[in-house]
Write a structure and sequence with these properties.
137 residues, mainly alpha, Non-ribosomal Peptide Synthetase Peptidyl Carrier Protein, Chain A, globular, transport
Amino acid sequence: MFGRLLTRTLATAARGVSLPSLQSTTFKSAVVSTNIIQTNTLHSTSSCFSAHVPLTQKQVEARIKLVIGCFDKVKKNEFSMDDDLFKDLGLDSLDHVELVCAIEEEFNFEIPDGISDQFKTPRDIFQFICDKEDVFH
């Protein structure tokens, strides 16, 4: 009985000693490989952990116009912020969903479906983003 207990204790202790040495070997090789990868992704990593730059209303409006202007149905410089997305710009319901997804990607946050359904003009999108992001004048 005492022999089995001693054997288990020694086996557990041996596993505890060999496991960290194995982990440190793996860790060192992982560090080397991440250092190689890190040079390529250093900028994106720092942007994930840093505070975002505050937006101005002009920047938000320009970015919204840029996203909307990317749609084939919309002429880039021939629409205003008060044009109706469906009547004036000719977007359909699928385009509306794609527009919301593009806006989410552009501003890096999710827009709830109930709110996105209320977007009738680019100005509505503008107001939502300005309220959500605390945009400066």
